[in-house]
Amino acid sequence: MTVPALAAHGVVVRFGGLTAVDGVDLEIEDRTLVDIIGPNGAGKTTFFSALSGLVTPAAGRLVVGGADLTRKPAHVFARAGVARTFQTPRVFADMTVAESVRFGLEFAGHRRRAERASLADVPAILDFLGLADFASVPAGAVTPARQRLLEIGMALATRPRVLLLDEVAAGLTEAEVRGMARLVRRCRDELALSVVWIEHAVAVLLDAVERVLVLHQGKTLAEGAPAVVARDPEVIEAYLGQGAGEARS
Ligand SMILES: Nc1ncnc2c1ncn2[C@@H]1O[C@H](COP(=O)(O)OP(=O)(O)OP(=O)(O)O)[C@@H](O)[C@H]1O
Ligand SMILES: [Mg+2]
Known about the structure:
Layout: E1 6-15, E2 18-28, E3 33-37, H1 44-51, E4 59-64, E5 67-68, H2 74-79, E6 82-84, H3 97-108, H4 122-129, H5 144-157, E7 162-166, H6 174-191, E8 194-198, H7 203-208, E9 211-216, E10 219-224, H8 226-231, H9 233-248
Parallel strand pairs: 3-8, 3-9, 6-7, 7-8
Antiparallel strand pairs: 1-2, 1-4, 4-5, 9-10
Helix pairs in contact: 3-4, 3-5, 4-5
Bound molecules: adenosine-5'-triphosphate and magnesium ion.
């Protein structure tokens, strides 16, 4: 039996009286692309925070590469190979693009074992992302789309095995979204990563992933192949109904 890259069992996250994540399960094999969709406030980002150790679940279990990391702090998740981006890009405005990526690589030096397919140095990462021409530009001065790529680069520099992407296609043009979907597939195919991608139901994305997890009010509403999930009446009512035009465009 193969050990999943990441497994979450019955994860519950509460903020005071609010249960933001309410018993969610997710198992991700190596080299798999999973999309998480759901209406605003469904608990998607909070679930990521649990998967990366930034919030401690009130209940549930988190296992990374077979190691139980439940209730461990974020740096333990990072060292085990979980990397994430943030819904609001967090780049260091004054650092150059290359320095930002180097920062991640230095962190990776602390990891016991980098994944075999990892990109080895800053130029390799910038090349992979198509950012080589911007190496010496301050991160704050590149376009928002390139800041998104840079954030992915900083995550890749930590040599992850699981990459968590929180709405990295938000605000991008259609062509840029297609480019992002291609890049994410290359992360899976060329870097052997498992990728969990939170994004609204963009058709191009649903075409790109193996599996979709639909969250609604903190709970799993549906999970399965994109074509099946997109036809699920409950999903259509809770979510796709509002964005159906976008989903089909
Ligand atoms: N740090 C926090 N403290 C208190 N409540 C929070 C916190 N973070 C999130 N919440 C609440 O938890 C619920 C889930 O929020 P979350 O950001 O995870 O949703 P989401 O699915 O990512 O939504 P969106 O599509 O808008 O990004 C919301 O009701 C939100 O207001
Ligand atoms: Mg969110």
